[in-house]
Amino acid sequence: MRLVADANVLLSAVTGGRARLVLARADLADVVTTVAALDEVNEYAEPLARKLRLPLGTVLLAVATLPVTVVDRDEYAASLREAGRRIGQRDPDDIDTFALALHLHAPVWSNDRDFEGAGVEWYTTARLLKTLELGHG
């Protein structure tokens, strides 16, 4: 199953949240994301390091080693206008993630309700864990 990950699930994985269970199973899920989503994760690295009382380098390393494929904007640029039309009013920061999902005909993986009812399949981490039968353990 190919999934387009939003920044919030990547942040969850970095902080040891349940999203890491999905990312740990590359045999079950091929996870891709956008440069914009990864930039958003990196924006939170410093406050996250303070909150977790970790060196910034440790958090940046955790982000850099996330098992996701980052897709260049050029690859899904043709879908940006449609993505903006569908969800731009909800959260402009989600347009790139949604455009990539449209381009790949793949579900979005996000705990953000902005994707609900937008016209692509949408998984929260809880739903994904249940679907992939990873919720036990």
* CATH class descriptor name: Alpha Beta
Which structural class do you get from the secondary structure elements? alpha/beta
Kindly state the percentage of residues in helix.
40-55%
Radius of gyration: 14 Å
Q: Biggest sheet: strands, sense, closure?
A: 5 strands, parallel
Number of helices: 9
Q: Mean pLDDT, nearest integer? A: 93
User: How many domain units?
Assistant: 1
Indicate the overall shape.
globular
How is the largest sheet built, in terms of strand order? 3-2-1-4-5
Number of strands: 5
Give a short synopsis of this structure.
This protein is an alpha/beta fold. It has nine helices and five strands.
Task: Describe the SSE topology.
Layout: E1 2-5, H1 7-14, H2 19-23, E2 30-34, H3 35-43, H4 45-52, H5 56-64, E3 69-71, H6 73-76, H7 80-87, H8 95-104, E4 108-109, E5 122-123, H9 125-131
Parallel strand pairs: 1-2, 1-4, 2-3, 4-5
Give a verbal description of the structure.
- The protein has 137 residues and is an alpha/beta fold.
- It has one domain: 5'-nuclease (Rossmann fold, 3-Layer(aba) Sandwich).
- 50% of the residues lie in helices and 12% in strands.
- It has nine helices and five strands, in the order βααβαααβαααββα.
- It has helices at 7-14, 19-23, 35-43, 45-52, 56-64, 73-76, 80-87, 95-104, 125-131; strands at residues 2-5, 30-34, 69-71, 108-109, 122-123.
- The protein has a five-stranded parallel beta sheet.
- The mean pLDDT is 93.
Index terms:
alpha/beta, 9 helices, 50% helix, Rossmann fold
